[in-house]
Amino acid sequence: MTTLTQSLIQPCGERLVDLMVPADKFAELNSYAKRLPSIQLSERSLCDLELLATGAFSPLDRFMGRRDYERVLDEMRLVNGHLFPIPITLPIAAGEAVRLRQDVALRNTHNDLLAIMSVEEIYEWDLEETAQKVFGTQSLSHPLVSEMHGWGRLNISGRLQVLQLPRHYDFRDLRLTPAQTRELLTTYGRADVVAFQTRNPLHRVHEELTKRAIEEVDGVLLLHPVVGLTKPGDVDHYTRVRTYMALADRYYDRERIVLSLLPLAMRMAGPREALWHALIRRNYGANSLIIGRDHASPGIDFDGKPFYGPYDAQELVEQYSDELKIGVVPFRELVYLPQEERYVESIKADDQTVTASISGTQVREQYLNKGNRLPGWFTRPEVAEILAEAYPPLHQQGVCVWFTGLSAAGKSTTADILTVLLLECGRQVTVLDGDVVRTHLSKGLGFSKEDRDINIRRIGYVASEIVRHGGVVLSAAVSPYRSTRNDIRNMMPRGHFIEVFVNTPLEVCEERDVKGMYAKARCGEIKNFTGIDDPYEPPLNAEITLNTVACTPEENARLIRDYLVRKGFIRVTNNPECVILGNATVSAPDSIAAS
Questions:
Q1: Which residue in 45, 146, 479, 595 is the catalytic one?
Q2: Strand order in the sheet with 220-225
Q3: Residue range 8-162 in CATH 3.10.400.10
Q4: What percentage of the chain has pLDDT greater than the value 70?
Q5: What pLDDT was estimated at residue 584?
Q6: Fewer CB atoms inside 10 Å of the end CB: C or N, the chain?
Q7: How far apart are CA 264 and CA 195, in angstroms?
Q8: Chain segment 351-370, per-residue pLDDT in tens
Q9: What architecture does CATH give domain 394-594?
């Protein structure tokens, strides 16, 4: 056993970081923490803390201080020279009760104690610089750039003493730490381990690729799916892990595969993220990594342009492969030959060869969204059944119609009419009206920028939960800030957030204002009123833009109803009202404007 342990590649820094406190210190520190100020960690920071504590980020042993943070941005290295491409920081708001040379308790959202940090640094960080250097963009269409706008503007760093890891009640036998994974890998008797990073269900082409990789390295496959934070709209990890278990159990040689779950919070940083994934897999015992096209990419921006080149990730990891001691197994494009019932590399299929393929978009739009079963040559029947159970046809899935615009623009009026039209077509609807929400969910909040932002984020959270459970939700709130609306968009599956810009001119809104709010704002009786002394940031890429001057509320509601029919969220029935009757012009892909 000792010989085999030594034959696995060593962790980065030659040893796994271990931040867990000894058992004999737990009671003392647990009692001490009760007297400390607390910080509640976000889901992202919880994932980071777990991987710091168990050594997955070795040699990093804390949330980064300023010098590490700055060198990672500029050179992808820690101050000690070790390669590390992604900044791992703990941001806090300026108002947090945290001081230098002070201990603070780190807790989860349920207030459970996880760790104690001895605060050694508090420093400001620059959002634009971080976005540009790490992600290569400042566009809010990048989910992490958008999310970062909601982070506190100070980072804290210092020694960590971890009392317990975040609790997970699912798939416990598969949640292996780096040390546990290494221990298991040694029992297979093979020094070479190829890791496969995934955040998607595995289909036959992935199965074929990973099996070829096993033979290529003559080793063991570490099937290492991410079960922390992935790209918004991804298949949930509960569904994915069930597919991985079925495949590993029935279609792989059990002596050549280890299935282990990785509680990673992905950044969708493309090339840098691929290098980070390689570093993490080395800490888990792998000495090669399968890297595919568009690895860890968030897709395209608002203009339809990809954030990264298709093979940028492969090229960057190959550039540092010798230093990191991780081999790259490229994800070769495979095609299926239906006449021969096998997969081959695409370069081996000439123009005369009959091939079959199904894109990710086709999987969603032509199969899952329509309730059609995926063919056996494309995916194993067990996987097809699990996906069909988890993803009903689109007309049974949730969708959010998010009305945004100035006060008195006509949001609520249009939403009320749309509600009736959707009920008529058989969909149950929840309306989250801004004024009503303030009376109940957000009672006590004022109208400062911060309070308005909190109010909109609360609406967004509730809306995302309704969508997740298959409901239709209409939100009618001013929601003036672009970054907040983009954050809410990223809470929903891709394509399930329909932003409707109620584009009513300010002077028309003032004429319609029966509450007299605009008049009070202009007299100074109301401060921070959107459109008067606080800005409204109109959408740049709304799916639908309404003209409430040229069109009536009913016409606009029917336009939205027809859009939902075209997208498949409403099933066309024999009811003559549930057909496309709307009067709209196509102004951009996936967006319409009232004519």
A1: 479
A2: 257-259, 220-225, 193-198, 288-291, 327-330
A3: yes
A4: 94
A5: 36
A6: N
A7: 15
A8: 788 888 887 778 877 888 88
A9: 3-Layer(aba) Sandwich (3.40)
